[in-house]
Design goal:
This protein is an alpha/beta fold. The chain has one domain: Alkaline Phosphatase, subunit A (3-Layer(aba) Sandwich). It contains 14 helices and 14 strands. The strands form three sheets. Strands 1, 5, 6, 7, 8, 9, 10, 11 and 14 form a nine-stranded mixed sheet that branches. It has a three-stranded antiparallel sheet with strand order 2-4-3. The radius of gyration is 23 Å and the shape is globular.
């Protein structure tokens, strides 16, 4: 990824924090540098004084999502099974889902996703079908004659990771759309020390804005802090004293002073964050002992501590890797999709336990879909795929977009089982942003290609996925 920082001073601040603390997680807590870049739009007069959170679950590697959501009616299943060959899920193992709005066909989810099946059937979760990064609507003919532009580096991991997180498929940008949203709405929060954007997976493009840098949390205490600082054992008291003396010193050099101020603020913020989440009692909801579920547990604790921390808006990011399955697809997906399904189910349960399910929208993304055809024991990089969203504001139990034919040679299949997407990722993102509180007038600024798919001035929801 290409990170072209706005100034040498900003680069210095970021790298200084990383080098001095020795942790990318603490270094990425260098936040709230609003004075260095564009001022945020004041929205306090046009928005309700309520809490909302967006939780982005990124499946790094490219999820083969036509084995996550698939047809199960006989005719469509036969097309699916013929195309997928040795990678097809047996028809009798697919878990049935029943969309409230039917297109006359039958659908189901991967057999490991019992939690997602139950969330869908209880109208707490929905799918968006055949979605992808797009600059403009495109047909197979236009793809081959080059008359409509396609995203840069269309089948490249690094490019598509960046484009799903920036919503800038036409260029390579270091600024994520979650960061741009936070830039816009940061004045809603009272806390001036801890970023609106909290990452459970370290530094990422999605949460990086012009004046926003993510605060990185961990699954145990909430924030890393400086190793050994404030601890009473061994050499830690001496370490703490030495760090305090260094941070309290007034340096003549402006860069040294700036460096020390950044470290002091990051240290204080990590302590504030840890202390706040420590006040939250353990949940009745039980979380699986793996990194993904425990990340959602810490997000829930952070949400429960929102009043202590002074937050009205928060954006969370969780990355789960392992989806680049050129080989061993069936075995790997059994574990991965099962873990995601369980984590989402646990998260839904805990949000209901703390009465916050209606205030949180969780959504999944992955850099691209994968080929419908097998390469022998796995699949290769493709384009269109399926995602899901969960929350009280989600119009649950539905499938949005258009689920495509999975027959080879259909009008959307360009070659080798690669499908042209029919729903732009921008529509998905715009609907999430509107629910979160971004004014419609700002959507085209945050999502510059949105106008090719949706008339902002026309009103109405871009997809209908979310009530707001």
């Amino acid at each position: 990824m290409h990170h072209n920082y706005k100034s040498t001073r900003r680069r210095f601040l970021r790298q200084a924090g990383l080098a001095a603390l020795g942790y990318s997680t603490v270094g990425s807590s260098i936040f709230k540098l609003n004075a260095l870049n564009a001022a945020a739009l004041s929205n306090s007069s046009v928005m309700n004084d309520d809490y909302k959170a967006l939780v982005c679950l990124f499946k790094s590697g490219g999820n083969d999502s036509f084995n996550m959501l698939m047809p199960r009616g006989n005719a469509e299943y036969n097309e699916y099974a013929t195309t997928r060959s040795n990678l097809a899920i047996p028809q009798n193992e697919i878990l049935a889902i029943n969309p409230l709005t039917s297109d006359g066909k039958q659908y189901g989810v991967h057999p490991s996703m019992t939690g997602v099946q139950q969330l869908f059937e209880s109208q707490k979760l929905s799918f968006v079908s055949n979605i992808g990064t797009m600059i403009a609507p495109i047909t197979k003919e236009q793809y081959f004659n080059g008359s409509v532009p396609v995203p840069l580096g269309l089948f490249s991991h690094s490019d598509q990771i960046q484009q799903w997180q920036t919503a800038h498929p036409h260029l390579r940008s270091p600024v994520g759309w979650g960061g741009r949203v936070a830039d816009l709405l940061s004045d809603m929060n009272d806390n001036e020390s801890i970023s609106m954007n909290v990452s459970m997976s370290g530094t990422n493009v999605f949460q990086y804005g012009q004046s926003t840098i993510e605060f990185s949390a961990n699954n145990e205490s909430g924030a890393e802090g400086i190793y050994g600082y404030g601890e009473p054992w061994g050499v830690d008291p001496a370490r703490t004293m030495a760090i305090d003396q260094m941070l309290d010193h007034d340096y003549e050099d402006i860069y040294k002073n700036t460096y020390v101020n950044v470290l002091r603020n990051a240290k204080d913020a990590s302590i504030e964050f840890r202390d706040a989440v420590a006040t939250i009692p353990e949940f009745q909801t039980t979380f699986t002992d793996n990194n993904l579920s425990q990340s959602f547990r810490m997000i829930a604790k952070t949400i429960a501590a929102r009043d202590i921390l002074g937050f009205k808006r928060q954006i969370f990011f969780v990355n789960v890797g392992g989806w680049d399955n050129h080989d061993e697809l069936l075995n790997n997906q059994q574990a991965l999709l099962g873990a995601v399904s369980t984590a989402l189910s646990e998260f839904a349960d805990v949000l209901e336990e703390i009465n916050m399910f209606d205030c949180v929208t969780t959504f999944t993304i992955s850099e691209f879909g994968r080929t419908l055809t097998s390469n022998g024991n796995g699949t290769d990089h493709a384009w269109g795929g399926n995602v899901m969203a969960m929350g009280g504001a989600v119009n649950g139990g539905e499938m949005f977009g258009t689920f495509p034919s999975l027959e080879l040679g259909n009008p959307l299949e360009i070659y080798g089982g690669v499908l042209l997407p029919t729903t732009s990722a921008d529509l998905y993102f715009a609907e999430l942003a509107l629910w979160f509180g971004v004014p419609a007038s700002e959507l085209n600024t945050i999502f510059p290609n949105l106008g090719n798919f949706y008339d902002v001035s026309g009103g109405g929801n871009p997809l209908g996925l979310i009530e707001y």
